């Protein structure tokens, strides 16, 4: 596939003290089409974040191939990342560590806009997309709450004019009251920008809310995948059934409330 993300039998292995090897990701094949929202779910430590880092070139593949829009994904080195791969951008879990504390928000958004001049909205438009006033551009990260910082991180990723947004547990460190709102915001902002979205989370309820397709990982492998409602209502694997059974039933019927971005 040349128009999106393509992973073919991708594996990532870490060397540990004593010469042992830890297989974090094993033989994962995954394709994401343009404009598609895919939710990648599984328990902590199952390899979700390692896979995300490999997609962005932050981890080396031990085997398999990965490409984005027809360009091979390689491990980042000291040189500038190849321009085509800059169109895959990640929003990290910790909104407190992902922004430069010494620079104003507007300057950090402008950094992203310079990657693809003319492709992204203005700073004011970016802030408006994530529900922040234009005055936020003149402020520093410490002046914002965690939820606001994650909104800024989303705006910064969109500022590059991406074709793929990757959310690596972007709601895990936020209050429960904010999690669904930030997730739905990521979906709407990504699709408005014409990008696809890979949303990684252990919260299946939120993934159900925003994803077109759900992919389930266990111990570094994909064990089930399909349209979100199909996986939700008719899981085929015992592991997926256990994940779904563990979800708190907020209203006693297992139904999600209707949430707005």
Distance between the termini: 32 Å
Global geometry: globular
Q: Could you say what the CATH architecture is?
A: 3-Layer(aba) Sandwich
How large a portion of the residues is in β-strands, by DSSP E? 15-25%
Q: What is CATH's topology name?
A: Rossmann fold
- Indicate the structural class: alpha/beta
Radius of gyration, whole Å: 18 Å
In total, the number of strands is 10
Percent helix, as a range, is 25-40%
Strand order of the largest sheet: 6-7-8-3-9-10
| Major sheet size, sense and barrel closure | 6 strands, mixed
Q: What is the arithmetic mean of pLDDT?
A: 88
| Order of helical and strand elements | EEEHEEEHHHEHEHEEHH
Overview of the structural elements:
- This protein has one domain: P-loop containing nucleotide triphosphate hydrolases (Rossmann fold, 3-Layer(aba) Sandwich).
- The chain is of the alpha/beta class.
- It contains 8 helices and 10 strands.
- Helices cover 29% and strands 25% of the residues.
- The radius of gyration is 18 Å and the shape is globular.
Structure summary:
By secondary structure, this protein is α/β, with parallel strands linked by helices. It is built from eight helices and ten strands.
Please render the helix and strand layout as text.
Layout lengths: L4 E11 L5 E12 L4 E5 L6 H8 L7 E6 L2 E2 L15 E4 L13 H9 L9 H7 L16 H13 L5 E5 L7 H17 L3 E6 L2 H7 L2 E6 L2 E7 H6 L4 H8 L16
Parallel strand pairs: 3-8, 3-9, 6-7, 7-8
Antiparallel strand pairs: 1-2, 1-4, 4-5, 9-10
